[in-house]
């Protein structure tokens, strides 16, 4: 084992450490809970670090990729492109061409348009693309209160619509593509094994029904995943002991050829495979006290850990001082009061650079001390706002046993774009740039893609507001005076106004952008001594004062 507390002094801080032995363990345990012989795909979106990818490829996983940057990382990691699955709702002609040219043959297609696009490009190259139709299932999941009917989705095609698309899916303009099966990915981060099982069984049934309706001979069935892992808080990966037997039984009934390999059954995972391998080590830069709140300023911010904060979701993260002796701070280091409400903030000049809020459990700390944030091997470095404020990225250290395998830093590089590289409006776009890009730019691609599946439905709520006046409302909200005071203290257009804050005023009109949103949340949590779970932060909540007040009521109850 490597002493983590020594690493920042050697390689710099902040530093992600990825323990490749833990990656192996997670893979082996997940494989044990899946049907025997099933394919396990690794979704590079979670972490495209080459050492991580290589570890999983060597362990038998195949890459699931959705950009040319991920394609490059998958190849670098030693993957065999014929086994990759290329997914994504907005595949461009350029990236499809780049993938085909690299030897990728399997694509998850999202719609008839996507199918025709893949088909046309494959046809032009004289090859056949194997296509999985991505399905947005309509099966009611077997658990109360979650998805009773299929929800609207930007991913895939609704199962009930697919049934009527037989002609569209088989016309001459689909020559070049062969539909080989279906792809599902209905849930993410499913902690409850029973709910996940119900979802996966539903997908098998839907695939069985669709193959008859569409006349598809299924040789590949990608059932997706949704395997969970805690993020930036302590805890264990959930285990799924109940999946294997139940899934094998359902497959035996519906797709008996799966036992002999006539139907390849695949599952996908990102966070579950790599989440618990990663720890972010960071250092305390300053400890300050302001009006009853302790601010622990870290050298890690939302540019290192916080793609989620950047879109209005806050990390309820947990940091612990490492066991080693604290690095002594300067002699004038401020006294630190335990039990004080604490905010963990980063180095960026924006109140949005808040990594943890509310009353955290962090004991007294001093500048120079190294803190560890656990379970950040997935959606960490490349899911962060790495370009914001132009600070260097975190160091990324891959370790195995007592050995440091690699220590690197991801950098953004500005490169010239020639006029020839620009795309005339009418022409199909060309495959340039990213496929041959540096590791740095490739990984940036991955970062840009990291938010789609990870954060379905977490749009910046501030954009969904209605229009209307912030003034002239009646205080029918029934709130106490502290509530409008918080809103006034943060929202610029309320601050100078004497008018009442009305329950149905538009917070967006009042100036609630994504930065102000973070500030409002933090202040409300401090004022009312509550923690607002991220799951409750829907766009509707941020439309009006009434929405916010109702939310507060629900967490204070
Ligand atoms: C994001 C994504 C994954 C990985 O999700 P995890 O929750 O990290 O396992 C797998 N498949 C698809 C299609 C995705 O979009």
UniProtKB/TrEMBL annotation:
InterPro entries: ACP-like_sf (IPR036736), Ala_racemase/Decarboxylase_C (IPR009006), De-COase2_C (IPR022643), De-COase2_N (IPR022644), Orn/DAP/Arg_de-COase (IPR000183), PLP-binding_barrel (IPR029066), PP-bd_ACP (IPR009081). Keywords: Lyase, Pyridoxal phosphate. Its cofactor is pyridoxal 5'-phosphate. Residues 424-469 have a biased composition (Low complexity). The lineage of its organism: Bacteria, Bacillati, Actinomycetota, Actinomycetes, Pseudonocardiales. PROSITE patterns: CARRIER. It comes from the Bacteria. Its EC number is 4.1.1.95. Residues 424-475 are annotated as: Disordered. The modification N6-(pyridoxal phosphate)lysine is found at residue 45. GO terms for molecular function: diaminopimelate decarboxylase activity. It is an enzyme of class 4 (lyase). It comes from Pseudonocardia autotrophica (Amycolata autotrophica). This is L-glutamyl-[BtrI acyl-carrier protein] decarboxylase. The active site is at residue 349. Residues 477-556 form the Carrier domain.
């Amino acid at each position: 084992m490597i002493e983590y507390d020594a690493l920042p002094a050697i390689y710099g801080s902040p530093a992600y450490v990825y323990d490749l032995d833990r990656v192996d363990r997670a893979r082996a345990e997940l494989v044990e809970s899946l049907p025997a012989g099933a394919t396990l795909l690794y979704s590079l979106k979670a972490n495209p670090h080459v050492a991580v990818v290589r570890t999983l490829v060597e362990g038998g996983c195949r890459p699931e990729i959705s950009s040319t940057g991920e394609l490059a990382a998958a190849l670098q990691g030693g993957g065999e492109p014929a086994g990759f699955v290329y997914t994504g709702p907005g595949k461009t002609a350029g990236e499809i061409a780049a993938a085909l040219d690299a030897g990728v043959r399997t694509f998850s297609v999202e719609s008839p348009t996507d199918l025709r696009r893949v088909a046309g490009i494959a046809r032009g190259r004289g090859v056949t693309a194997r296509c999985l139709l991505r399905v947005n299932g309509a099966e009611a999941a077997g658990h109360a209160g979650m998805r009773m009917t299929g929800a609207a989705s930007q991913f895939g095609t609704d199962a009930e619509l697919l049934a009527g698309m037989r002609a569209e899916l088989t016309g001459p303009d689909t020559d070049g593509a062969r539909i080989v099966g279906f792809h599902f990915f209905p849930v993410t981060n499913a902690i409850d094994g029973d709910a996940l099982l119900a979802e996966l069984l539903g997908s098998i049934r839907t695939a069985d029904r669709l193959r008859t309706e569409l006349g598809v001979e299924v040789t590949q069935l990608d059932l997706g995943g949704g395997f969970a892992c805690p993020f930036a808080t302590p805890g264990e990966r959930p285990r799924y002991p109940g999946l294997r037997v139940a899934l094998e039984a359902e497959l035996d009934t519906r797709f008996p050829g799966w036992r002999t390999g006539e139907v390849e059954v695949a599952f996908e995972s990102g966070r579950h495979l790599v989440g618990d391998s990663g720890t972010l080590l960071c250092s305390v830069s300053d400890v300050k006290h302001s009006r009853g709140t302790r601010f622990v300023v870290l050298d890690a911010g939302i540019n290192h850990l916080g793609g989620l904060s950047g879109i209005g979701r806050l990390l309820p993260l947990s940091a612990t001082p490492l066991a080693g002796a604290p690095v002594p701070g300067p002699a004038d280091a401020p006294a630190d009061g335990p039990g004080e409400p604490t905010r963990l903030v980063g180095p960026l000049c924006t109140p949005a650079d808040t990594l943890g809020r509310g009353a955290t459990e962090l004991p007294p700390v001093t500048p120079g001390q190294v803190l560890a944030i656990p379970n950040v091997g997935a959606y960490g470095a490349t899911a962060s706002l790495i370009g914001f404020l132009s600070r260097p990225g975190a160091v990324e250290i891959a370790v195995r046993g007592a050995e440091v395998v690699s220590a690197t830093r991801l950098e953004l590089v500005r490169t010239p774009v020639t006029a020839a590289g620009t795309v005339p409006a009418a022409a199909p776009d060309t495959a340039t740039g990213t496929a041959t890009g540096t590791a740095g730019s490739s990984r940036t691609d991955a970062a840009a893609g990291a938010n789609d599946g990870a954060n379905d439905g977490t749009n910046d709520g501030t954009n969904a507001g209605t229009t209307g006046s912030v003034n002239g409302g009646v205080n029918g909200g029934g709130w106490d005076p502290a509530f409008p005071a918080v809103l006034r203290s943060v929202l610029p257009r309320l601050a100078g106004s004497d008018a009442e804050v009305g329950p149905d005023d538009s917070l967006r009109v009042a100036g609630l952008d994504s930065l102000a949103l973070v500030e409002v949340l933090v202040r409300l949590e401090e004022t009312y001594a509550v923690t607002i779970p991220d799951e409750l932060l829907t766009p509707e909540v941020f439309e009006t004062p009434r929405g916010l007040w109702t939310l507060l009521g629900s967490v204070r109850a």
